[in-house]
């Protein structure tokens, strides 16, 4: 199945919902997003369909087993069928959560996404990776379940906080290392709409080639192994954590050019902050290694696959043992303490 990615105006979202071939629509909406846009997305204008609405906690807070069970039981209790269509309105965390509900309820129903954050528009809403978090780490309980539609409306970016915009920029920065066209658009400070479209199309292409992430799609994990660890340890937004995960990867295994490219891209994207989350603190080697050992990308009990960048648009997968990573971290711990971009 191929996902249709379409740019829509805010006032046309209900019109898109009305065109779905179903008599039952399930909606999961981020609580904060809904408080801002409920008067623009008028559910009462959905015609000839039963509408069931479940409001999700903001952002990552919803991605837990208890809220997952609550949502599933809510919809099942209301009486649904396998031709029902679930619609997620929110950022990447909400679509991760809602997509898992769609993938599992009645053994899988169709679903569509209205991404409302920059990070979600360029990355999280595309590709069908859906999940909730475990106490052991991020996105460890999940599935692959492609959405039918992704309706992108840049209007939502206008109400994002600086922190949320910065998080989205972190994922865009990742794409710059994987695809020269995106790199060029960012360095030239092209219109953000064009950058969003380029990122979405690039991820869609890799997803079509490799849905289950056994080959080329793994390149999209650039910066994520260290990034997820940093995200959990310091409680920072996902995209920002990915950027620091890439920086850490390049510091340990990359080149000076890699780090210079990050600095140039960070400036072009107007991302604030030069100091790493661990700046002037003891680098948390033990915690980093603990999260790496539980990462989804481990290739064996003693090793993990990491995405390496030779140059812009030239990426490869390399397997590193945990002993090797720990040794490099130990050797660089004093330098890492003062790490800035």
Automatic annotation (TrEMBL):
What Pfam families does this protein's entry cite?
Answer: DHQ_synthase, DHQS_C
* 3-dehydroquinate synthase C-terminal domain sequence ranges: 168-297
Query: By its UniProt entry, which InterPro entries does this protein fall under?
Result: Dehydroquinate_synthase, DHQ_synth_fam, DHQS/DOIS_N, DHQS_C
Question: What CDD domains does the database record attribute to this sequence?
Answer: DHQS
Listed cofactors: NAD(+); Zn(2+); Co(2+)
Q: Name one GO biological process term.
A: aromatic amino acid family biosynthetic process
Q: Which residues form the 3-dehydroquinate synthase N-terminal domain?
A: 56-164
Q: Which UniProt keywords apply?
A: Cobalt, Lyase, Metal-binding, NAD, Nucleotide-binding, Zinc
**What GO MF terms are annotated?**
3-dehydroquinate synthase activity; metal ion binding; nucleotide binding
Q: Which domain of life is it from?
A: Bacteria
Parts of the chain that traverse the membrane:
none
Q: Which PANTHER family does this UniProt record tie to the protein?
A: 3-DEHYDROQUINATE SYNTHASE (PTHR43622:SF1)
- This one is known as Uncharacterized protein
- Species this protein is from: Bacteriovorax stolpii (Bdellovibrio stolpii)
């Amino acid at each position: 199945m191929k996902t249709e990615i379409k740019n829509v105006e805010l006032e046309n979202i209900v019109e898109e919902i009305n065109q779905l071939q179903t008599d039952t629509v399930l909606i999961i909406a981020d609580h904060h997003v809904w408080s801002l846009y409920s008067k623009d997305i008028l559910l009462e204008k959905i015609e000839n369909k039963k509408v069931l609405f479940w409001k999700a906690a903001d952002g990552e807070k919803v991605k837990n087993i208890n809220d997952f069970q609550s949502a599933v039981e809510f919809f099942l209790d209301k009486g649904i069928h396998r031709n029902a269509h679930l619609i997620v309105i929110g950022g990447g965390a909400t679509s991760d959560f809602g997509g898992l509900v769609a993938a599992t309820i009645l053994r899988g129903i169709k679903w569509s996404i209205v991404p409302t954050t920059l990070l979600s528009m360029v990355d999280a809403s595309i590709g069908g990776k859906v999940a909730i978090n475990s106490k052991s780490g991020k996105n460890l309980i999940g599935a692959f379940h492609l959405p039918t539609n992704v309706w992108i409306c840049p209007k939502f970016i206008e109400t994002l906080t600086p922190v949320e915009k910065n998080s989205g920029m972190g994922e865009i920065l990742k794409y710059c290392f994987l695809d020269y066209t995106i790199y060029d658009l960012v360095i030239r400070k092209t219109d953000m709409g064009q950058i969003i479209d380029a990122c979405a199309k690039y991820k869609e292409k890799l997803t079509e080639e490799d849905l289950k992430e056994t080959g080329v799609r793994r390149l999209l994990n650039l910066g994520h192994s260290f990034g997820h660890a940093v995200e959990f340890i310091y409680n920072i937004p996902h995209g920002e954590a990915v950027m620091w995960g890439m920086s850490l990867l390049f510091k340990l295994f990359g080149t000076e050019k890699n780090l210079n490219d990050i600095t140039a891209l960070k400036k072009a994207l107007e991302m604030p902050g030069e100091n790493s989350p661990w700046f002037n603190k003891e680098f948390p080697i033990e915690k980093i290694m603990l999260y790496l050992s539980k990462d989804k990308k481990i290739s064996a009990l003693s090793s993990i696959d990491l995405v390496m960048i030779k140059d812009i648009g030239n990426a490869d997968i390399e397997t590193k043992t945990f002993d090797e990573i720990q040794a490099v971290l130990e050797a660089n711990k004093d330098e890492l303490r003062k790490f800035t971009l």
